[in-house]
Amino acid sequence: MGNPFDPMNIILLVFAVVAFIRLRATLGKRTGNEDPLDSRSVFQPKNTKNVNDVDLNDKFIPQSKEEILDYMSSNDKNFSKEIFLDGSKNAYKMIVENYASGNLEPIEGFISKEVYDGFSEAISSRGELKQKLHNEVVEFNSVEIIDATLETNIIQLKVMFEAKMISYGEDSTGNVIEGNKDSPQVIKDIWIFQRPIKSRTPAWELISTNPDD
User: Fold this and answer.
1) How far apart are CA 25 and CA 76, in angstroms?
2) Closest by CA position to 70, among listed 29, 23, 12
3) Where are the domains of the chain?
């Protein structure tokens, strides 16, 4: 795909580990009795606290994507599919752009120490080669939950992002060595988010990123 943000580049640096990014989110479901929620309140740093009172009914364990999403929407006041997807778009843009710029401070509160260290190593390696990476998300063509799983009180949502992005790499002299600085390319990525069903801090983690080949 010729994508400078190809997670495979990170995998090479951390040896057989998918580029795990941990991303915290408090998801709100509109009930009519709460303050209006928008995507700005969806993905929040690790210290965000909110009580999640969802219990799985032993007599009914949802299996399919549709069953799981319906179950969460009906039983978890802190979940809304639409707000989750809006927030995930904001998070995607923030992550890929700050990673490319080498500025991890704005996203430090959204990722684990292991991921922070992995990104730091990748950025340092880029610096040693005197190379620069530029990512700018222009717009999203689509964002879709393509799968959902529920196991041992952990829910995982697999999200497909298709975005138009200006993405390119430069060498030490400023020559473009990969990508195109003038023309957006269509990038497809699949990210997997997870969180416990019941937690006093219902925080979503982005546990896996892969290009959609």
Assistant:
1) 14
2) 29
3) 7-211
| Structure tokens given for 145 | 């939950």
Beta carbons within 10 angstroms of residue 171's beta carbon: 13
CATH 3.10.450.240 fits 7-211, yes or no: yes
Q: Please state the three-class secondary structure of 56-91 as a single string.
A: CCCCCCCCCHHHHHHHHHHHCCCCCHHHHHHHHHHH
Specify the pLDDT at position 142: 98
Q: What is the DSSP string of 145-192?
A: EEEEEEETTEEEEEEEEEEEEEEEEE-TTS-EEEE-SSS-EEEEEEEE
- Nearest Cα to Cα of residue 157 among 110, 206, 91: 206
pTM of the complete model beyond 0.85: no
Distance between CA 107 and CA 22 in Å, rounded? 10
Question: Which stretches of the chain drop beneath a pLDDT of 50?
Answer: 1-2, 4, 7-42, 51-53
The percent of residues above 90 in pLDDT, for the chain, comes to 38
